[in-house]
């Protein structure tokens, strides 16, 4: 759980999950952080990506069935030495309504997830190390918005790139 700001710059809390590699970073310079921004699972708290990383597959009554399809990507990146943080977005896993496709709220959650990861004690991250934004579908829009807002909202982050894939 970390602090963020909603679309009106009011403080709120957001949840997410961080993955720390066990192997050393094979590249030069500090270990990079990938801020992975996932696509849409749904609007309920059970749809929070961090919950799916803990469960793998979620099922409850009716049509409430989800699979954490990013697990392979995260496992690959961590095995290659990258640290990864994934935001749940505002309102998934925390009180309030999920801010689906709200540009500013999603960008804040993405950038604040990277900030929070950089401040976690006991990680191999350099607080001033490189950050990459990586998103697709809903996450593609959030990644693009975060990249756009980063110079003013999170100027201390060393954003070295962004990958933003929208459907279509």
Written account of the structure:
The chain is α/β, with parallel strands linked by helices and 168 residues long. It is built from four helices and nine strands; from the N terminus they run ββββαββαβαβαβ. It has helices spanning 49-55, 71-79, 103-119, 138-153; strands at 2-5, 11-14, 16-19, 33-37, 57-59, 65-67, 83-87, 130-136, 158-165. The strands form three sheets. Strands 3-7-4-8-9 form a five-stranded mixed β-sheet, sandwiched between helices. A hairpin with a 5-residue loop joins strand 1 and strand 2. Helix 3 crosses helix 4 (138-153).
Tag the structure with descriptive keywords.
168 residues, two-stranded antiparallel ribbon, 4 helices, globular
Q: Looking at the structure, what is the overall shape?
A: globular
Give the end-to-end Cα distance, rounded to a whole number of Å. Answer: 33 Å
Question: Beta-sheet strand percentage?
Answer: 25-35%
Structural class: alpha/beta
Number of helices: 4
- Gyration radius (Cα, Å) is 15 Å
Q: How would you sum up the major sheet?
A: 5 strands, mixed
Q: Give me the count of strands.
A: 9
Q: Determine the mean pLDDT.
A: 86
Strand order within the widest sheet? 3-7-4-8-9
Low-pLDDT segments: none
Q: List SSEs in N-to-C order.
A: EEEEHEEHEHEHE
Binned, the helix content reads: 25-40%
């Amino acid at each position: 759980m970390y602090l963020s700001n909603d679309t009106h710059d009011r403080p709120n809390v957001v949840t997410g999950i961080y993955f720390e590699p066990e192997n050393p970073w094979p590249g030069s310079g500090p270990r990079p952080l990938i801020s992975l921004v996932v696509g849409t699972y749904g609007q309920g708290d059970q749809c929070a990506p961090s919950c799916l990383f803990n469960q793998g597959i979620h099922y409850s009554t009716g049509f409430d069935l989800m699979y954490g399809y990013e697990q392979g990507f995260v496992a690959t990146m961590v095995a290659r030495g990258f640290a990864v943080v994934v935001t749940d977005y505002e309102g998934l896993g925390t009180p309030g309504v999920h801010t689906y496709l709200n540009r500013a709220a999603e960008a804040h959650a993405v950038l604040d997830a990277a900030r929070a990861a950089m401040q976690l004690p006991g990680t191999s991250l350099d607080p001033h190390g490189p950050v990459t934004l990586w998103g697709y579908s809903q996450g593609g829009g959030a990644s693009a918005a975060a990249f756009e807002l980063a110079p003013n909202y999170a100027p201390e982050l060393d954003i070295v790139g962004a990958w933003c894939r929208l459907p279509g």
